[in-house]
Amino acid sequence: MFKRILLATALGIAALGGIHDANAQQRAICYNCPPEWADWGSQLKMIQSKLGITVPPDNKNSGQAIAALIAEKANPVADVTYLGGIAADPAKDAGVLSPYKPKNWDKIPADLKDPDGNWFTIHSGTLGLFVNKQALGNKPVPQSWADLLKPEYKGLVGYLDPTSAAVGQLGVMAVNLALGGTYENLDAGIKYFKDLQKNQPIVPKQTSYARVISGEIPILLDYDFNAYRGKYTDKSPVEFVIPKEGSVVFPYVMGLTNKGPNAENGKKVLDFVLSDESQAMWGNAYLRPVFAQHLSADAKAKFLPDADYARAKPIDLKKLATAQKVIVDRYNKEVN
């Protein structure tokens, strides 16, 4: 009888272990997959529906994701991560990513992926002016970087803090390149933001979509997909402008975490985000899918005309990453 009890107990423990393992196999942890950003919410639901893999939402930003991955390096928690392109090589250099080339990887342009497969682009956004027309009152919608320096826009312009936000650093570089600067010479961009201080800009540290929709920040340097979401999904009186001097296109990337606990599920998630279905979903969320053919005609019709987008040039991720520290240092010393 005692032996039978021991055997039954052992079998029960084994069964529980098997249930735990099965549950673990149906899960993947993604750092920086916030449901309110880029319509990740719909993507996570589709991954659950199509793959049977639960991916809990995660509201980290790129910097926080990399910091967590480094801190957990000896005992990884995440299986995959989503990052702004400026963080791609720093994450690789920190040793927190593992090479994996998902399905359709070969179709991604060479400058939008790591040659060894540590990271790859899934979609991109274009930086410009996210404008709440109603909050401007009778003032015209600005059409250029130069317009923002006019006294009539005093107190109406916002941009994310370049010392803490990647989109803030991108804004400095976008203006710098548009006004004749280079990745190595930031004089034009730093001078612009120094001049903009006279107009008392609003400089938040966190994503400020809701503050534009409410009219608290009438003009924000931000991405096209946020403006289109405001206009077409939230039905707000907003508009997107690509400044006439020019702007930049910024990619978002994903990668497999080094030694993640559910690596095989992580690989399936990475395969999915490059699938035809997922790429079409990104387009319907107003992002440019890395495979342009999956931007539907209906979605494309909501974007500005191609002639406007011709003013936005692809950012050089490696040069931007090299310039990142200089942007922060010079902004702190010369603008703040």
Automatic annotation (TrEMBL):
Source superkingdom: Bacteria
Stretches of the chain forming a coiled coil according to its record: none
Keyword Signal recorded: yes
GO molecular function, one term: thiamine pyrophosphate binding
GO biological process: thiamine transport
Signal peptide (from-to): 1-24
One GO CC annotation: outer membrane-bounded periplasmic space
Keyword tags: Signal
Protein name in the entry: Extracellular solute-binding protein
Species: Ferrovibrio terrae
